[in-house]
Write a structure and sequence with these properties.
Length: 147
């Protein structure tokens, strides 16, 4: 990943975080939500962050020494079920944050991120199918057994 891409991602997360904090501030004085999703949110966030880190670790082990740009089919973790398990876990983390915040902005951001990453994972699956003849056809894009 190039530095320019990392900067765009970093800035977008910073802006989203600032808006989420601000929207949380705007709810001051409103009654608490009737259903407390905070603990479910914390659990989802922790599972999401852990799974995302683990699958990025597996991806990092694919790169050989040197600058060889050889593409390989990832193995381990949920890579046998989905092409982008790191996206799945990133989305779980976002839903955890949305459940903790329980604001319209948090849910809107999470829904948008979910749809964007589903589209990216679908494109990645299509790419794998076109580049690797031995790529398993039953491996889904992002959600095991479904999508």
């Amino acid at each position: 990943m190039g530095l320019d891409t990392m900067i765009v991602i970093l800035v977008s997360y910073m802006v989203a975080s600032a808006f989420m904090i601000y929207s949380q501030h705007l709810t001051k004085g409103f009654p608490e939500p009737p259903i407390d999703l905070k603990y479910l949110g914390i659990a989802l966030f922790l599972v999401g962050v852990s799974g995302n880190f683990y699958h990025h670790y597996l991806l990092s082990k694919l790169r050989g020494k040197g600058n060889a740009k050889e593409y390989k089919i990832p193995k381990g973790g949920l890579f046998g079920l989905v092409v982008c398990p790191h996206y799945l876990f990133e989305v779980l983390g976002f839903w955890g944050i949305a459940f903790i915040a329980q604001t319209l902005y948090a849910f809107s951001f999470t829904l948008g991120s979910t749809l964007f990453l589903m589209g990216r994972s679908y494109a990645t699956r299509s790419w794998y199918l076109s580049k690797f003849e031995d790529f398993p056809k039953g491996v889904k894009a992002m959600i095991p057994f479904i999508f």
